[in-house]
């Protein structure tokens, strides 16, 4: 009887200890938040989300499209809004006459295209919602060349698995400053709504929104949609680019798959 | 647990096995998940500390906006709700030690991580979101298969008829004792049912509706909520409904016997006064 009670008490105390063991988690959260092992464990959620969304997003499911009436009066630009890189300033000075888009890497036929070349290709226009990782959304109208058309012309080599977008802008302060870049997988690259957009709301892209050319990947968050695109590189792996995580923000802790 | 523990003494108390191991384990995993989700959720909210209605953000017309604003050359924490602005310096909008105020919607002590870091906040959030969902599936499957919901959570007709009396007793802080305390009372049953089958599913689905990937797969989702920004607002409101529930829940635990309640949610055993003695006390 007494033994039973002892046992009972011990069980209770163990339980309470376990409960309060979990509580200080909140107290030392900042230490946990900078611990690489903790971050890696927490990061396990990303492949689960990615795989499940791929499963649900069979093939070419389209992001919702809207009407002219839905277009946001104020469309907040994100990331760099005025690149001060000399190369970009020179291109801007000549109204992008000397600007060329290069498609390189694991392709059979590397391409060099002027803005005029891009405008002559078949285009797609779409009114979509832009979701920023911060939480806000804006609706805009985009016109551009479906990326799939260019990839068909360049013809990807079989090893190609990702497309890396190298941009003209440098983002971040002093030591942390780096050229912006992004990458997407082939499912998104060949998706019908994935565009290299040169027009926004019926006007050429403004500098704040990525002139002369930006990427639209409508089923992911805003930071995937690289602005000021200069070069598209088909690669097998992005491990050797930047810090190896596949993008400017990915190198700073954000998910590569930004579908959520 | 042996039978001897049930009536091991000559006292008027007897123990009943109240919570199954599965309910106890999933309960505490839930506590952990919801704490982490709330704190990391507030970190995420701080990245753009305003809520809107509709598909897109009409920046000039927020439903709620929490930020630091200028006043008489100084700063104050401004919380704007439907056009009305309140000074919430110290907690919302502007917080931290008085000589080192920081501009941030929710204060450092409630966000995860404490410093502003959206990327890490998202990592915490999505990890514990998955854990919550898995835990919830286990709980729901077992609850349906073992009849827990029908047996323990569905109020009886008799209980519903006397709901007024139950409310009156709760207001006077008189809680069921003896035989009656063997089962959840009607207010407990209803609030648990609403949390399990309304608030939590709403919270999760509204959260998923913020995902551009999910919106492409199920475009009707945003229509149901009236837009992505509406879904974000509902996600936020549902989270605070849970906070309100948790506050009342913890208060009731404290008032109706902290030790007894804690023991029953840890070991399963809950002590009640034996029938016949209940009216004496």
Tell me briefly what this model is.
The complex is a heterodimer of chains A (260) and B (281). Chain A contains 9 helices and 10 strands.
CATH class of the largest domain in chain B: Mainly Alpha
What's the β-strand tally of chain A? 10
Roughly how much helix do the residues of chain B carry, as a percent range?
40-55%
What is the CATH topology of chain A?
Sulfite Oxidase, Chain A, domain 2
Give average pLDDT of chain A, whole number. Answer: 91
Strand content of chain A: 15-25%
Plain-language structure description:
The complex is a heterodimer of chains A (260) and B (281). With 260 residues, chain A is α+β, with helices and mostly antiparallel strands. Chain A has helices spanning 2-22, 24-27, 29-33, 36-42, 45-56, 86-93, 115-120, 147-154, 186-189; strands at residues 101-105, 111-113, 124-131, 137-146, 162-171, 178-185, 195-200, 203-204, 214-216, 229-235. Chain A has a single domain, classed as Alpha-Beta Complex (Sulfite Oxidase, Chain A, domain 2). Chain A contains nine helices and ten strands. Chain A is globular, with a radius of gyration of 23 Å. Chain B is α+β, with helices and mostly antiparallel strands. Chain B has two domains: 12-47 and 117-273, Transmembrane di-heme cytochromes, Chain C (Fumarate Reductase Cytochrome B subunit, Up-down Bundle); 50-105, no CATH class. In chain B, 53% of the residues lie in helices and 14% in strands. Chain B has helices at 21-47, 118-145, 148-153, 157-161, 163-171, 186-209, 212-217, 220-225, 228-255, 258-266, and strands at residues 13-17, 50-51, 64-71, 74-81, 84-87, 93-95, 102-104, 269-273. The two termini of chain B are 28 Å apart. In chain B, 31% of the residues are buried. Mean pLDDT of chain B is 92; it is low at 1-10 and 276-281. Classes of the chains: A alpha+beta (260), B alpha+beta (281). At the A-B interface, helix 1, helix 3, helix 4, helix 5 and strand 4 of A face helix 1, helix 2, helix 7, helix 9 and helix 10 of B.
């Amino acid at each position: 009887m007494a033994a039973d009670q002892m046992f009972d008490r011990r069980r209770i105390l163990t339980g309470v200890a376990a409960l309060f063991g979990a509580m200080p988690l909140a107290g030392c959260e900042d230490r946990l938040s900078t611990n690489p092992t903790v971050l890696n464990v927490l990061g396990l959620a990303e492949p689960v989300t990615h795989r499940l969304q791929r499963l649900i997003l069979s093939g070419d499911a389209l992001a919702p499209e809207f009407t002219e009436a839905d277009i946001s009066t104020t469309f907040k630009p994100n990331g760099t809004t005025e690149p001060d890189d000399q190369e970009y300033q020179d291109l801007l000075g000549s109204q992008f006459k000397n600007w060329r888009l290069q498609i390189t890497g694991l392709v059979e036929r590397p391409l060099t295209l002027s803005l005029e070349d891009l405008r002559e290709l078949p285009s797609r226009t779409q009114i979509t919602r832009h979701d920023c990782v911060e939480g806000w959304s804006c609706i805009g109208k985009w016109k551009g060349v479906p990326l799939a058309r260019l990839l068909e012309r360049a013809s990807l080599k079989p090893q190609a698995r990702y497309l890396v977008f190298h941009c003209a802008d440098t983002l971040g302060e002093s030591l942390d400053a780096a050229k912006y870049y992004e990458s997407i997988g082939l499912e998104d690259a060949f998706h019908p709504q994935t565009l290299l957009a040169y027009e926004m709301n019926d006007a050429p892209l403004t500098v704040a929104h990525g002139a002369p050319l930006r990427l639209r990947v409508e089923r992911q968050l805003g930071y995937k949609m690289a602005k000021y695109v200069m070069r598209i590189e088909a690669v097998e792996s992005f491990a050797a680019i930047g810090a190896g995580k596949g993008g400017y923000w990915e190198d700073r802790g954000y998910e590569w798959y930004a579908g959520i | 647990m042996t039978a001897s523990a049930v009536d091991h003494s000559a006292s008027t108390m007897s123990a009943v096995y109240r919570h199954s191991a599965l309910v106890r384990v999933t309960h505490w995993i839930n506590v952990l998940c919801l704490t982490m989700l709330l704190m990391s959720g507030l970190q995420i909210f701080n990245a753009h500390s305003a809520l809107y209605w509709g598909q897109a953000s009409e920046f000039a017309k927020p439903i709620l906006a929490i930020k630091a604003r200028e006043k008489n050359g100084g700063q104050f924490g401004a919380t704007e709700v439907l056009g009305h602005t309140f000074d919430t310096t110290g907690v919302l909008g502007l917080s931290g030690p008085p000589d080192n105020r920081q501009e941030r919607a929710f204060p450092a002590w409630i966000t995860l991580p404490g410093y502003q870091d959206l990327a890490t906040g998202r990592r915490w959030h999505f990890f514990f979101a998955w854990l919550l969902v898995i835990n919830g599936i286990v709980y729901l499957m077992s609850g349906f298969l073992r009849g827990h919901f029908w047996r323990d959570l569905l109020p009886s007709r008799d209980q519903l008829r006397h709901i007024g009396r139950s409310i009156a007793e709760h207001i006077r802080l008189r809680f069921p004792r003896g035989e009656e305390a063997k089962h959840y009372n009607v207010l407990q049953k209803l609030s648990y049912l609403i949390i399990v089958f309304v608030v939590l599913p709403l919270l999760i689905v509204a959260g998923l509706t913020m995902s551009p990937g999910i919106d492409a797969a199920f475009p009707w989702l945003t229509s149901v909520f009236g837009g992505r920004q509406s879904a974000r607002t509902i996600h936020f409101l549902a989270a605070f409904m849970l906070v309100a529930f948790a506050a009342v829940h913890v208060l009731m635990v404290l008032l109706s016997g902290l030790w007894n309640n804690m023991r029953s949610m840890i070991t399963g055993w809950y002590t009640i006064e034996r029938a016949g003695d209940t009216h004496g006390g």
